[in-house]
Amino acid sequence: MEKPNTYIIPMVDKALEIIEYMYERGGEIGISQISKDLNLPKATVFRILATLKKWDYVEKTEDLDKYMLGKSFIKVGSKVSSETTIASIAVPLINKLAKKIGESINLGILHNSEVVTVYNTKGEDFYLISNLIPVFPLNCSAMGKLFLLQFSDKELKEYFNSNKPEVRTVNSIANLEGFLKLKKEIEREGVSYDREEYEYGLSCIAAPIYDANKNIIAAISISGPTTRLRYKGTDKLKDLLVLTTEEVSKIYSNMFVHGF
Questions:
Q1: CATH class of 10-70
Q2: ∠ at Cα 94 (93, 98), nearest 5°?
Q3: Rounded to whole angstroms, how far apart are CA atoms 26 and 69?
């Protein structure tokens, strides 16, 4: 007999079962019908729907007590679709660039005030890169500082006053004043650098990916040992990286502008 999964939360499991049921069935449906079809108590169905309604994952119709899936699924689905589309566009171009320069390249997105690496291709052997975790703080990563550019003054203050900024090396910028000084340089150059701010001996160059409204939706970075990147030419690597991100941005924007 298969053992039950002790990590499953019954009420969450039931909520997801209801969501799947509503998705498959479509349209508007009442509590009694859901209770009957899924063999769940009406009180349980009511509490779950009330919670989902609070977060706009279901909507209560004006036609008495019927429910339908809500607008939050559009928001979530749009974000997932967007990130999936970015990856599908960027990965072939990232692989092409990695083959040309022989360095590790990363595709990152912003999530919960951190950079999440959704794709990475390895370059020449380097121990530090092979052991990096896929989540980075914004303040001491090249991609992260690009995302910070779009924070409002209030959001920047909140971020740097929180426990999110990390001091990883003596070069790490973990206060608002330090970032504001650097911000002008990033805006002027159009790229961001990690100058051994996350790990000693490791440097990164990052460039943004824009949507049609010039919002930064993702970033691509080149990572490698500081001495090797300098030997290959930081400016040359930067130019190649920017060409790649510009191409990704153009393809992505055109897809959504034309509704593909």
A1: mainly alpha
A2: 120
A3: 8
Helix (H, G, I), strand (E, B) or coil at 24: helix
User: Do 19 and 56 meet the contact criterion of CB atoms below 8 Å apart?
Assistant: no
Q: CATH homologous superfamily of domain 78-257? A: GAF domain (3.30.450.40)
pLDDT, tens digit (0-9, with 9 covering 90-100), for 55-103: 888 988 876 678 988 877 766 665 665 666 788 889 999 999 999 999 9
Question: Considering only CA atoms, which of 138, 151, 136 is closest in space to residue 216?
Answer: 151
Tokens 């500081």 belong to: 226
Residues forming beta bridges with residue 205, ordered by sequence position: 193, 222
3-state DSSP call for residue 108?
strand
- Measured in degrees and rounded to the nearest 5, phi and psi for residue 233 equal 100, 100
pLDDT digits (tens, 9 = 90+) for 25-35: 888 899 999 99
Q: Which single residue is written with the structure tokens 């340089």?
A: 185
Q: Is the pLDDT of residue 43 over 80?
A: yes
C-alpha dihedral, 76 to 82 to 86 to 88, nearest 10°: 90
Start and end residues for every CATH 3.30.450.40 domain found in the chain: 78-257
Per-residue pLDDT, 260: 46
Residue 195 main-chain phi, psi, to 5 deg: -95, 75
Reported as half-sphere exposure (CB side, CA atoms, 13 A), residue 100 has a value of: 13
Task: Supply the pTM of this predicted model.
Answer: 0.69
pLDDT tens digits, 228-239: 999 999 999 999
